[in-house]
Amino acid sequence: MAPPTAAAPAQANEEDRQRMMFRQAMARKKRKEREAAGEIKELNIIAMMDMMTIILVFLLKSYSASSVAMTSSEECRPPISTSRATPRDTVAVTVTPKHVLVGDKAIVTLSGGQVPASALQGRLVVPLDQALKKEVEKLKFIAERNPAAPFTQELSVIGDRKVPYDLLLTVLYTAGQNELKNYRFVVIQKEDN
Fold this sequence. Notes:
2 domains; 5-stranded mixed sheet; rod-shaped; two-stranded parallel ribbon; alpha/beta
């Protein structure tokens, strides 16, 4: 009986060794499958082009040499100054001898350098008041959703050299009624010779 008993443990050891080898082979196969799943076998150029297009549009939209875009014309010639402060991107009100503009849109047509009485309510310029309300609402909407762009209550005034002081005060009063309390006057920087 001794010989059959000695063969049985040898057979059991062989079965254990084969099971062990099988488990190792399965673990090796699973590891290779996991490694292969993380590999990039080919580059999806369509997704790459979409990503680059989005980045390009973002960069073009955010690039500007100056925050305040101002077109020079004979109608509006701001004063010359030696100031070195850079303009910021704020609500822009342009006052010329003929018009009051918010952005690029003419809001009030002046007669003789003054706001017509039909557009005034005390010192408040009604059409300018309505236009500034829309701009302030838009800035507050943006500020609620983007903490990086807070509502700073700033106003950039681009005024012609010959605009009467009283007209500027009327425009500033109207802006103040719309929470625009910080004023910046845009000037042309004097060139150093």
